[in-house]
From TrEMBL:
It comes from Candidatus Roizmanbacteria bacterium CG11_big_fil_rev_8_21_14_0_20_35_14. Keywords: Membrane, Transmembrane, Transmembrane helix. InterPro entries: FN3_dom, FN3_sf, Ig-like_fold. Gene3D superfamilies: Immunoglobulins. The keyword Mitochondrion does not apply. This is Fibronectin type-III domain-containing protein. It comes from the Bacteria. The chain crosses the membrane at residues 249-266, 275-293, 313-330. Residues 112-205 form the Fibronectin type-III domain. Pfam families: fn3.
Length: 335
């Protein structure tokens, strides 16, 4: 098999193959690239002569992986072949021969006449609701993509509804993070232009992983069609690096507030220098906990001073302002 990796990297990469809403490999995000290699041939859909189909191949690295995987690689040949009279596509991750015996698929679907226009974006607790006006015909589906920096969209849902769909709610998305979102319409195998970008910051706490239906790098724009050739061809996957560094601050701040309230209630009638010095441990331990829980975020954003979230960017300042506010209130109550 023409595969190679550094260490055990391939066993730690999520790997999936989709055709729209249909999954052919790794549908529950529980399959790795190493599973794909070991699987040998993976059968996809039948493609009749003159028709086409678009497949999305996604490779994602879990945010839980540590620094031991920096500089590692996982390489393999993606060989695409067409066999039989009904053009069944076979992907072989481990090498081998590919046959071509079908007419090259051509996408003749007309693109939507315009982009949808986002009318409103509403944030809830771990949810975002988008409402838009329809794109001009022809339209067969709508796609939503989002990211955590302007103009960069890391995740996409390839089909949030068919023609006539004008609203969609993204559930189970991490709170306290500013998201940038766009909508686009598509007709068959041809996507239309993106809408204008909107941004919002939902409430709620941290939620691991992407919302249901959203996959890394799915934009519906640059997916290449599978075109057979008369001789076996080696190919490569063109992808994007997906790094999910989330910032978890809500429960940390809530814990600090509870600790401060409990501390000052216990010692509400006492006023000594020793107790005041001891209370400083609360914001110090809170800051240490924040750094340990958000190591990836701190390294990627805070050191570079470009954190997209206000609370996380200025957490150390907010932390001690909160402590000083409680301290001032406690001293006022105790004269």
């Amino acid at each position: 098999a023409n595969t190679s990796q550094t260490g055990d990297f391939a066993s730690n990469l999520f790997f999936r193959v989709d055709e729209g809403a249909t999954n052919y490999f790794g549908g529950s995000d529980d399959k790795t690239m190493k599973n794909f290699w070991d699987n040998g041939e993976t059968n996809l859909s039948d493609i009749s002569s003159g028709n086409s189909s678009i497949y999305t191949i996604s490779v994602a690295m879990p945010a839980s992986l540590g620094n031991e995987f920096q500089g590692t690689t996982a390489k393999f040949d993606l060989i695409v072949g067409f066999v039989g009279t009904e053009s069944k596509v076979i992907i072989s991750g481990g090498g081998g021969a590919a046959l071509a015996a079908a007419t090259a698929p051509i996408c003749n679907d007309q693109a939507p006449g315009s982009a949808p226009t986002i009318l409103s974006v509403t944030s809830g607790v771990n949810s975002i609701t988008l409402t838009w006006s329809e794109a001009s015909d022809p339209v067969s589906y709508y796609l939503i993509a989002y990211g955590t920096s302007p103009g960069t969209y890391s995740y996409g849902n390839p089909n949030v509804g068919g023609k006539g769909t004008t609203s969609y709610t993204i559930n189970s998305i991490s709170g306290g993070v500013t998201y940038y979102l766009v909508v686009r319409a598509g007709n068959g195998c041809t996507p239309g232009p993106f809408s204008g970008e909107v941004s919002t910051t939902p409430g709620g706490g941290f939620i691991a992983g992407a919302p249901a239906g959203f996959l890394p790098g799915v934009l519906g724009a640059t997916t290449e069609e599978l075109t057979p050739s008369p001789t076996p061809q080696k190919g490569e996957i063109k992808g994007i690096e997906v790094q999910t560094c989330s910032c978890r601050w809500f429960l940390i701040v809530l814990g600090e507030i509870i600790a401060l309230i409990a501390y000052f209630l216990v010692f509400k009638n006492k006023k000594t220098t020793k107790l005041l010095l001891l209370s400083i441990l609360i914001p110090i331990l809170t800051q240490i906990g924040f750094v340990l829980i958000n190591k990836c975020f701190v390294y990627k954003y805070l050191i570079l001073n470009n954190a997209p979230d206000f609370v996380c960017k200025y957490f150390i300042l907010i932390n001690f302002i909160l402590f000083l506010t409680f301290l001032k209130f406690w001293r006022k109550r105790n004269g």
